[in-house]
């Protein structure tokens, strides 16, 4: 089988940002990438109501302040909300009152908006990438609800890599585990370290040659330059020492052990938005491109893999 060098664009943790997803889809052509990989935490975290008021005005609470617009300004308000990673939802005062009485209706509406947005994104990606030869993988992360898996698997063109070995161009392979070790936020996909380790071992067993494998493990390896974040107390407040926040490694020991044991060619990680950079564990190189989704900035890593030299090089990019 003839092999060749390939170029990968990797991004992660866009958390519902419409602007970031559109940039991700366009990154293949822009950077000349053969493969696009979204590493997880694709969906947003909040429904933002836009309430119709008397006189044809519309009111919403965005970025900590109230905004009121007329009908001509409504599309711009929706875009502002969507680009920041929220789900804009047009509603009425009567429906807001019903939401207060029936919290389960809020969750149902949130889920529907999430599903609709993700479906629209996938249609956009299929349209933009059709005929380009660019491979696109969309993986769930710890913040993504489980129904997202089925949505991501509904495409005949886009690939949900979770739980399967994916053959990449150039003879490389990739496994994916979107689960995390426990976090203060009790997100949908969290496991104790021993169970996370078992899941990674199960996926790693599928790899024919770890020297040509990519481990797309959403959480970075513990106590490395790419897992550093502020320590939080039980009330989610920063832990302070001598007046300054305590910075600590919040990544996964199971991930670190897996990288050390299997020595894959490359580790792709996210989860810790502020820890952009790289880490080396033995011969393996791990990369976290970071995330600045709330500002509409797509942070990514452009990686060139050589069939002879492994990771030929990489560049952290943003735009």
UniProtKB/TrEMBL annotation:
What is the top-level taxon of the source organism? Bacteria
Quote the PANTHER family the UniProt record gives: CALCINEURIN-LIKE PHOSPHOESTERASE DOMAIN-CONTAINING PROTEIN, METALLOPHOSPHOESTERASE
Q: What is this protein called?
A: Metallophosphoesterase
